[in-house]
Amino acid sequence: VFRGKSRHDDPLYARSVRNPETALQPPVTAGRSRPVRLPAPPARYGGRHTVTLIPGDGIGPELAKHVCELFRFCCVPVDFEVVNVDSTKTSEDDINNAIMAIRRNGVALKGNIETNHNLPPSHKSRNSLLRTTLDLYASVMHSQSLPGVRTHHRNIDIITIRENTEGEYSSLEHESVPGVVECLKIITRTKSLRIADYAFRTAREKGRRRVTAIHKANIMKLGDGLFLECCKEVASGYPEITFNSMIVDNTTMQLVSRPQQFDVMVMPNLYGNVVSNVCAGLVGGPGLVPGANYGENYAVFETGTRNTGKSIANKNTANPTAMLLASCLLLDHLKLHGYASMIRKAILSTITDSQLHTADLGGKGSTSEMVQSIMDAIQSSGPRTQRH
Amino acid sequence: MCFSTLLWGEGYDTTLFATIWTKPVLLNIKLTLVLLLSSVHLQQQGENIPPPAKYGGRHTVTLIPGDGIGPELLNHVREVFRFTCVPVDFEMVNVNSALETDDDMNNAITAIRRNGVALKGNIETKHTLPASVKSRNNVLRTSLDLYANVMHCQSLPGVQTRHKNIDIMIIRENTEGEYSSLEHESVSGVVESLKIITRNNSIRIADYAFKLARERGRRRVTAVHKANIMKLGDGLFLQCCREVASGYPDITFDSMIVDNTTMQLVSKPQQFDVMVMPNLYGNVVSNVCAGLVGGPGLVPGANYGRDYAVFETATRNTGKSIAEKNIANPTAMLLASCLMLDHLNLNDYASLIQNAVLTTMNETRLHTADLGGQGTTSEVVQSVMRVIQSKGQFTAEL
Lengths: 388, 398
Hints:
The complex is a heterodimer.
Chain A (H helix, E strand, L loop, with lengths): L10 H6 L3 H4 L20 H4 L1 E6 L5 H14 L4 E5 L10 H13 L1 E4 L15 H8 L4 E7 L12 E7 L9 E5 L2 E9 H17 L4 E6 L7 H13 L6 E6 H10 L6 E4 L1 H15 L6 E5 L4 E5 L17 H13 L3 H16 L14 H14 L8
Parallel strand pairs in A: 1-2, 1-3, 3-12, 5-10, 8-9, 8-10
Antiparallel strand pairs in A: 4-5, 4-11, 6-7, 11-12
Helix pairs in contact in A: 5-6, 7-8, 9-10, 11-12, 12-13
Chain B lengths: L2 E5 L8 E5 L4 H13 L2 H6 L8 H4 L1 E6 L5 H15 L3 E5 L10 H13 L1 E4 L15 H8 L4 E7 L12 E7 L9 E5 L2 E9 H17 L4 E6 L7 H14 L5 E6 H10 L6 E4 L1 H15 L6 E5 L4 E5 L17 H13 L3 H16 L14 H14 L8
Parallel strand pairs in B: 3-4, 3-5, 5-14, 7-12, 10-11, 10-12
Antiparallel strand pairs in B: 1-2, 6-7, 6-13, 8-9, 13-14
Helix pairs in contact in B: 4-13, 7-8, 9-10, 11-12, 12-13
Cofactor (chain B): Mn(2+); Mg(2+)
InterPro entries (chain B): IsoCit/isopropylmalate_DH_CS, Isocitrate_DH_NAD, IsoPropMal-DH-like_dom
GO molecular function (chain B): ATP binding; magnesium ion binding; NAD binding; oxidoreductase activity, acting on the CH-OH group of donors, NAD or NADP as acceptor
C-alpha cells in the first residue's frame, strides 16, 4: 500500500507512464491559455479516494447519477462504489453490505431509503439502522439564505446540530396491554455530552458566537433536563461562546417570525428533525439544503431533509442543488477544498438564474438543465475538465 | 332572590362563595327569567333570550390567574365583562407555582369540577423544584381529562404577516403521548421517557376532530405523525384516525409526517384545513401556526373534555419578561373569553366582544409591542370597550 506524498513519488505511476514530464502537464486545448492545475492532497491508492454511493429510492438514483456525471466532468479524484439497498426486502443483508462498504471506505454519499409502511414493525428504518450502527452521532445542517432564491425571510444563517442516534428514534416500542403502546425515548449522559461538545467545537471552528439548546424540559424533566444539564456543563468550557436554551415550541414560533436571531442550535433527535425541517422550509425548501452525518470514524452525506421524493422520481424535475452541495461537503471532508469551492461557486451562480429554477422553487427548469448549466459555469471558470 | 357573593382581591388566597337562597327554587328561576326578559339590553337585542342558567341567570366560571401576564390580562377580561354586563361571575382560585405541595392545584381542580368551565392563565413550571413536582398545567389537563385542545389559527385582517389567508384548525390530543410525565433513570446517566399512545384516546380524539370538522363545514382532515420511526405508537394513532375517517365519507382524510408538515407550513400554509395529532407534535405545530398568523398574543386556545372546558391562550406562554409592564397583547385572552362565552351559549355577548377586539386590531397605532407597535394593554382594552359602547348595547359606565 502506497503512502507517499504525491504521485511524483509513486514508483508505480512513474513506471507506468512513458513520458513522465509531459504526462504531468494538462492537455493543451486549442485557443485557451493553460488552465490552473489543482494540487491533489495525499490519498490512498494512487491519489484517488473511494466513496460509497447508496442511491436509495425516489429521486436518489437520478441525483446520484448527476453527481457522478459532475465529478467525472470536473475530474475530481473520487471513485464511487455503488451499493444498492432494496427497501422492499425484509432481510437486512443489503443494508449490512452497505454498512460494510462504508466501514471500508470511511465516507459515503447516500439518497434516502424508503421505509415501507406495509412491512411489519420489526422491520426498522434502514436509514436509522445505518446511522446507529455506524454511530454517526451528529447530524449537521447548515441553512443559509441563497442569493437567487426568493423567500419570506432574508439573511438566515443557522447551523442545526442534532443528536442522531438516540432520543425518540431508539425504535424501542412495545404493546404490553392491547391498545396501549409505550414508546421509549432514551437520553443518556455520554451521548448528550458528546453532541454538546461537538456543537461547541464546531461553533468555535466556524467562529460562531452563540449556541442555543432546544429542549422540552418543563415536561420531560429527567430526560431533556439531563440533556440541558450536559449542554450547560460543556458550555462552561467555552467561555467565548454564549449559551442559552429555549423550549421547542417557543423556538418554532420564533423561527417563523424572526429566524435571524438564531446562530447554532443543538438538540435531541426529534426536535432536531422538526426544527431542521422548519429551517429548510424557511430558506427555500427541501431541494436546497445539504446535510451531513458525522461520527467518530465515518461520515455520510445526504440531503438535509432526507426526502425520498417518490412523487417526482424520474420526471427530471427534482432540484439537484441539495445533493450537489452535499457532495461539496463530501469533498471538503476529503480535504479536496479546491474542487469543493469550484463546484459550490458554480452552483450558486446557477441558482441566481431564476430561469433555471426547478418546480419546487416555482420555476419550470429541469434537473438536467441545471446540471448542464453548472458544468458550463465550471468550464468557463477555467480548470481542466472533460469534454461534454 | 338568590345571589352569590364573590370576594376577590390581591390579598385573598381563597374565594368565599356564598349562595343564599331566600325563596324556593322554581320561583327564583321564574323571577330571574322575568327580570332578564325585561332588562334593557334584551329589548335592544331583539328576540335573543339567554339560555336558562343556574343560580339566577348568571354563570359562574373558575378563574385561575396563573403567573406572568396572566393576572393582568384576566383583570382586563373581568373589566370588559363587567362593562358589557355579561352574566358571568368569576370564582378566582390562585395557584402558587413556587410551592411544592399540590393543595393549590387540587383546590383549582375542585373549583372547575364545581363550575364546569374555567378561564386560566399559564402556571409557571419552576425548573428549580425537584422532578417529582409535575407541571401544574399538565396535572390540570389530565385530572379533568380535557382530551382535546382546539386552536383556530386565522389570519387577522389588521395584522401584517408574511403569509395571508391562513385558516387552520389544530386539534391536539391533550392528555397522553409524550406528556405522560413517566420518566425514570434505571441506570445512572441513562434516562427513559415513556411516550404512551392508547387506542381509546386516539379514537376519541380522531372522533372529536371529525365531528368538529363536520360541524364547521370543513372539507379535509390531516393526521400528523411520525409513523416511519415510531411504528407501533404513531402507527396506532394513524390506524385509529383511518378507522374514524371511514365513518365520515364527506370529509377527505390524509396524513403527513411531522417534519414534512412543518416544512410545508412555512412555505405553503394555505393547504391545510383541519389537523389532528398527538401531544408533542401538536405543541410544535400549533406554535408554528401561531407564529405564522402573528404571534402568541393573538390566538386563543380551548381545552375540551367530556364534562369540563378550560379556556386559555393557545401557546400557553407565561410571559414573565413582560409581566406588569402594560405591554402584553390582550387579544388572545379576550378571544379566549369569547370562546368561553360561546361555550356557555352566550353567543351574542361573544360575537359582540369578538367584533370589538377584531375592530381594534385593525388599528395599527394600537398594536402592542409583539406586533411591532407601541400601544399599551390598557389602551387596547379601552378601545375595545369604546367599540362595544358605540354599538349601542347596555353597558356600565366607561
